[in-house]
């Protein structure tokens, strides 16, 4: 294993810790801050691993997270921003094409961007189950051990977050 690969794997292993924490918070802003930190770690890991599609598209994800952080969740700009960013992802995905495997990352991250624009943490958790499954396959292909762990953690944490939210909602309903 080369030095770049070791650095890439270490950076990729940091992301699951941040990702798990991010899916346990209840505010959009906290979720976005933690997701941006996890995405930065993932982005840098892809750079060191030579996974060009993952690297290029995660740069857009960092920009997306920052843009959504500063937008009002009820703003129509959220959807417009999401469509523009999803289109940019399509272009960058084409420019960093690694073969058909790149489609998984392009589709998953573009879809995730659209779901983020709705400003609904529960809906985002639900979408992550599908989109992270697609990115998990990409991580297997580029052999990002931390990436595999990260997407597995994202899927598990999303499921836990969904269940926790539903339990709290049911408890509130039972109290009334």
Strand content: under 5%
- How many beta-strand runs? 0
Radius of gyration from the alpha-carbon trace, in angstroms: 16 Å
Q: Number of folding domains?
A: 1
SSE arrangement, N to C: HHHHHHH
The rounded distance between the terminal residues' Cα atoms is 59 Å
Outline, from the CA principal axes? globular
- Overall mean pLDDT score? 89
What is the makeup of the main sheet? none
Number of helices: 7
Indicate the structural class.
mainly alpha
- Residue runs with pLDDT of under 50 for 5 or more positions: none
Helix content: over 70%
Characterise this structure:
Helix content is 85%, strand content 0%. It is mainly alpha-helical and 176 residues long. The longest helix is centred in the last third of the chain and has 31 residues, at 145-175. The protein is globular, with a radius of gyration of 16 Å. 41% of the residues are buried. The mean pLDDT is 89.
What key attributes describe this structure?
176 residues; 0% strand; globular
Summarize this, please?
The chain has 176 residues and is mainly α.
Secondary structure layout:
Layout: H1 3-22, H2 28-49, H3 52-70, H4 77-95, H5 101-117, H6 121-142, H7 145-175
């Amino acid at each position: 294993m080369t030095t770049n690969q070791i650095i890439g794997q270490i950076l990729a292993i940091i992301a699951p810790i941040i990702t798990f924490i991010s899916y346990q918070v209840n505010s959009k802003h906290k979720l976005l801050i933690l997701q941006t930190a996890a995405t930065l770690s993932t982005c840098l890991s892809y750079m060191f691993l030579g996974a060009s599609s993952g690297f290029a598209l995660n740069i857009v994800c960092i920009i997306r997270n920052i843009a959504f952080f500063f937008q009002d969740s009820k703003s129509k700009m959220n959807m417009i921003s999401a469509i523009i960013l999803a289109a940019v992802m399509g272009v960058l995905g084409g420019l960093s094409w690694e073969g058909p495997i790149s489609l998984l990352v392009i589709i998953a991250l573009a879809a995730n961007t659209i779901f983020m624009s709705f400003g609904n943490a529960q809906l985002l958790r639900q979408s992550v189950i599908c989109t992270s499954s697609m990115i998990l396959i990409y991580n297997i292909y580029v052999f990002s051990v931390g990436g595999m762990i990260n997407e597995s953690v994202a899927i598990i944490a999303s499921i836990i977050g969904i269940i926790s939210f539903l339990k709290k909602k049911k408890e509130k309903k039972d109290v009334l």
